[in-house]
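Handout, page 2. Input:
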Amino acid sequence: MKRILIVNNNMHIGGVQKALVSLLWNLPADFEVTLLLFSPTGECLKQIPPHVRVIPVKSAYRYLGLPRAQTRRKWDKLCRSFFAAVTRVFGCHLAVGLMSLGQKKIKGYDIAISYLHNAGNKLFYGGCNDFVIKHVSAEKKITFLHCDYLLCGANTPQNRKLYEKFDAIAACSGGCAEAFVQANPHLREKVLVVPNCHRFDQIRRLAEEAPVKLPQDRVNVVTVARLGKEKGVERALKAIAMLPNKDKLHYHIIGDGVQMPLVRDTIDRERLSDTVTLYGMLENPYGYLRAADLLLIPSYSEAAPLVIGEAACLETPILSTETSSAREMIEKTGFGWVCENSEEAMTAALQALLENPKMLKSKKTTLSESPVTNEKAVKQFLSLMNM
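Output:
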C-alpha cells in the first residue's frame, strides 16, 4: 500500500480544488491518502471522500490558506497582513521562509505531492511547493502544474530552483506542459501530462436533479465562469453585440466576480438586456449546461478548464477562444470548435453556428456517441506514481 501525502492551500471553490476532489474519488483503494491543508476550510471540504485523512498544517503556513475576507480573529488578521506586506515588498519567497521557521519535518510517506503551483513572487499565493521540498520526508516528491507557466507570472528564479528539486512535474494538459518546458527546457524529462479527473456520474446526476427548459426559438449559449478579467466575459458581450442576427441567440452567464459591475454596464451600453441573462453564482449550474446548445469559453488565457469535460459529458458542444490547451482539449477530442483569441473571431464563429444550426445538432450527436471517461487521467496518474 502506497502512503501518499497531498498538500494544498484550502478547499474553497476553485478549479484546483474541484480537480483535487475528483482525483481523490478516482484513486485506487490500495492508496493510503492523507490530505494536508494549510487551512481546512472551504465548500469543497465536505466533498472529500471519507477514506481520505485530512490534517491541518501547524505553522504560519496556514495564512497562505486563509482568504483575507474569511480571516476572523484579530491575531490572524494581523499575521496574515504582515506576511502579505512582506510579500509585496520583498517577495513571497521571503514570506514563506519566515513561515517555515516553526514548521516541523513530516515523515512516514512514500510519495509527497504539492497540488498547487506557485505564482509570481509578489503574489501572496502558493507555498505548497516550498512545503513539500522543505518539510516532508518522502521517497518521491511530485508537483502539479495547473497554469500556463508563461502567462501567470510563475516563471521566476525562485520557482525554477524549487521545480529542479522535484522528482516529477505533472502538468494538467499538453499545452501547460509545453509552456513549462519552453521556460525550463532542462526539466523536460521530469514533465508528464496528467489530465484532470472529473466526477462524471455526479455531474449527470446534478443535471437531472435541476432540469432547465430554455427558449426553443433561439440558440442558447452559456458561459460558466468566475467573472475575472482573464475570463473575457465582457468582450464576449461585445462580440455578441456585433452579430447582425443576435436576436436569434440568447446568452446565459453563470458566475460572479469582480467584473460583475462591468458586465452589467456592458449589457446596458450594448443594449443587450433582451439577449443576455445574468444568474450570478449557482451551486448547481449543470441543468443549464445540459440544456444549452453551446458552451462559450471567451477567455484571454486558460490552463485546462474543468468546464470542458463537464460540458462534454452533458453532450453540450463547446466554442472556445484559442488558449494554451484549447485545441488539444476541444478540437482534437471532437468536443467543439476553437477560434482565434479576439472579439472579431468570436463574432464570426458564433455567426457561422447561427447560420448553420445543423452543426450544433451534429456535434451533440457526436458527443452522445462518444462518452467521456477518466481512464486516461487515472492511467497517467498511476504512471506518475510508478515512475
